[in-house]
Amino acid sequence: EVLFNCPQENRATDGKITYPPGVKEISDKISKEEMVRRLKMVVKTFMDMDQDSEEEKELYLNLALHLASDFFLKHPDKDVRLLVACCLADIFRIYAPEAPYTSPDKLKDIFMFITRQLKGLEDTKSAQFNRYFYLLENIAWVKSYNICFELEDSNEIFTQLYRTLFQVINNGHNQKVHMHMVDLMSSIVCEGDSVSQELLDTVLVNLVPAHKNLNKQAYDLAKALLKRTAQAIEPYITNFFNQVLMLGKTSVSDLSEHVFDLILELYNIDSHLLLSVLPQLEFKLKSNDNDERLQVVKLLAKMFGAKDSELASQNKPLWQCYLGRFNDIHVPVRLECVKFASHCLMNHPDLAKDLTEYLKVRSHDPEEAIRHDVIVSIVTASKKDLSLVNDHLLNFVRERTLDKRWRVRKEAMMGLAQIYKKYALQAEAGKEAAKQISWIKDKLLHIYYQNSIDDRLLVERIFAQYLVPHNLETTERMKCLYYLYATLDGNAVKALNEMWKCQNMLRHHVKDLLDLIKQPKRETSLHLCVEGNLPDPGKTQDFVKKLAQVLEEDEKIRKQLETLVSPSCSCKQAEVCVKEVTKKLGSPKQPSNPFLEMVKFLLERIAPVHIDTESISALIKQVNKSIEGTADDEDEGVPTEQAIRAGLELLKVLSFTHPVSFHSAETFESLLGCLKMDDEKVAEAALQIFKNTGNKLEESFPHIKSVLLTVLQHKAKKGPPRQAKYAIHCIHAMFSNRDTHFAQIFEPLHKSLDTDNMEQLITPLTTLGHLAMLAPEQFAAPLKSLVANFIVKDLLMNDRIPGKKTTKLWVPDDEVSPETLAKIQGLKLMVRWLLGVKNNQSKSGNSTLRMLTAILSSDGDLTEQGKMGKPDMSRLRLAAGCAILRLAQEPCYHEIITLEQYQLCALVINDECYQVRQAFAQKLHKGLCRLRLPLEYLAVFTLCAKDPVKERRAHARQCLVKNINLRREYLKQHAAVSEKLISLLPEYVVPYAIHLLVHDPDYVKVQDIEQLKDIKEALWFVLEILMAKNENNSHAFIRKMVENIKQTKDGQCPDDPKINEKLYTVCDVAMNIVISKSTTYSLESPKDPVLPARYFTQPDKNFSNTKNYLPPEMKSFFTPGKPKAANVLGAVNKPLSATGKMQTKLSRMETISNASSNSNPSSPGRSKGRLVSQTHIHVSSLIYKLGSV
Prior knowledge:
This protein is mostly helical. Helix content is 64%, strand content 0%. Mean pLDDT is 83; it is low at 1-13 and 1126-1189.
């Protein structure tokens, strides 16, 4: 390699030009062709010479000078110029280090000339390309341009050279061209004194995205050059960024606006180029300019997130500073950070820990879009590889399923569903991963407890597409459902059952709507039923009207819909129907058609996509496989016994919603097999399935009927109590000559009743009780004597075996004595018999109620001989309380329940035993939810305000909320029931609550502050929920009601001045609550309240009760403020554990309830002899009355 110095003097002494042998003079006198021919020979001569040819160098010096004259440098012919350039390149090589040209201007002209010739490299197909390549190779090898370092205009020359090379490089060039260009340019950077901004720009401009995309080869060339010269060029790059970023001098370069793009590119080329620039970015991250911070954040996101980037580990301060921007005040900055998270998680799992705490805060960001994108980031990374996200991150997604915004909830739910399908169903990352996210299925189904119809619809869609994909082949689909059901938690199972129930109900509504359309006269209450099941309540009303119109006019659509809701519709048929209807209603001209969208929602909810006869058959086969031991239970992580139980539970639920799908011999035969299994739960479920689905069994499958009947009769006589009960109901539901079958069971059982063997008594009593309920006329005479003589005299009025002495108030089911269990069955038999008879002509109802209240007033020990153990007494109190609740659901018995009996029953909710309170509250809630128990029983929940256990209070509140909402909904949908207003309008619970509290045994001293505080709490317990919404000016209505009560006397003890004083005092407490919590109480009441006549006397017109009965110090306890809105979220269903599962919970709670507070919810004297003074009935007279039934 040769280096040059600029010569100081001209060594040519005379002007004579010597040409190589055979070459004549080259001047403008000859033709172009001749000139080219001669120049080629000159080129050859110079090409063959080297630095040592001293004589020749001297000889051809003038020729060298001649070739640099303007005549050649400005020659119009490009071939001539190319040849001259080749000569000049060789001349620089040969004469190095002393170039023969002295004038700086001349040198500039020559190099600008050579640079211009290099443009010829562009056309790789040209005949002259090799000469152009020779020119490039020569000047690169000799580093000829280094001569220019001394020239004033060096920058202009180099800039022009760089520009030219970047312009001509293209994909026709081979590696050598690329290499020579890099050599040529890098020598200028590495060996020069400085790199001007202009020169730097010619390189950097090729990295700007717009240029990069236009000319990839120029980008590669710039990249190679920067890599080669990294060390030398770094200070100039730093200076450029310093000028622009720190000093804000954007005028230094046209590239100023692209600084962030350039930093990214340079970082990707060689991070050393930015050693001093990165700290400047840290400074910029803290800039006061929002847009500037946003740009830096976008840039760093790409730098930190890039696949092989080690920036976070190399530059910790910058990484920490960047993480701080997750909490930026500017929304777009936070949004950018959150979006970056998914790339970062995917490319740098090691940074997940750092990101987690910042994403946690952002998942609670006030901006909806940011919360939404946190989910997107986490889910995107999870879908790439589950190991990239830790449990905390998935938990953020889980939390957002309850976000207040629908868009965020939807994203979170869909994200979890996709993760579940990928890793749990398709097991793409093995069993461990599947286990890690097994909670998703439960969580998604829990969302069905939400009030919002959008959430519920989405859960249904997710279930059909992700949890049990409907497009799976039938056997696979049912296997998937079978194991899903077996592994769901209790609340998720309830949600899934509820989902099928809702869809089934909607199917029935649509079926009714179709039937209605066929009739000439129509009512519209059905529309409401359908409307409530679709999103966006505002628009559904018009939708249902339009749907009814379409169905009326279009018979084809009506037929398709009829097929869809018919019980025998198969999954494949359903698919066809849905397609047909949407095709017929959709039009290509109107792609977004809101009516069609609503129709799709409706179809999605009513189409049977999972269950048909074939599916049930496949499900039964799956259960049989488990029974035979040939299923994959262990692989699926489910113990076989659990799988079989769950399978039958699942079939049981489906037998309610899809009974017709069970009608096949194969299904019924398999169920018969289940009846004979030892597992009681399995046999119970099989019996219930027969009861729900077997109405056509007698005529369609006679061979199964005969076998089944024998099994049922055996179970009714000798099976476990629950199976006996279901066996009786099966016979009742399935067989035509049931009287005969009933008689065959009743007679032998009736005759063989014997109190000597209590254990053997429980099943017969259960069976007889259900026979009494289903066929009271058939066995009227024997039942009367059975109740009077056997049940009351022999069973209930005798304590044969002394109970265990224990301080415990409750023991698990399996520890309860057989005698107590038999007595409970005896009580149930009496109640069932009364419910069967449904009239009180023989006054049996009165005597039974006296009997039940005697049990309550004697604390469960009816004989009062003290032989019974405390747990047995608790059981009997519970049984008696629940029995009264059952009778109160039948109007003919509700009428005869006295107020004292009602109050005794109500006090069971304050029983000293926690489990009694819990079970009684559940029974009470169930009766109220079905709108079977009268409204006064809703007031019983007010007594829960003083329960010492927080869970019980919370549960009672949820029950109140649900029941109040339920009644309000019912009144909205059934506008015609206004005559029943007093029994439905939730506000009417207030008089009952007031009356109940007046007669509360804890309320002894009328003016006692502590007792009044309890009463205030109890009233507020119910009023808070009633007053949360002031619907139809209800606050004024409640005020008017309380005012009216003050004008009456107590209906129970109208002449007792103390009781009446209590009544007015409690009214004043209620009034003060209403006044302190409402701003509209003083308005005119919408209607005049009607008070229940049994509870209050008629108002005395001459009497105006304006006295204030409260002690003055009570005033301070009424704090003003609005009632909180009741948030129910379906939670009522959560604490209500199923009876089968309750025992484990109860035994755990016993330590809380029995040990700590001895289960006494209020004052110590509460339970013992409670209300005895008022209602104690002497036992001997009771026996006499009951015996004479």
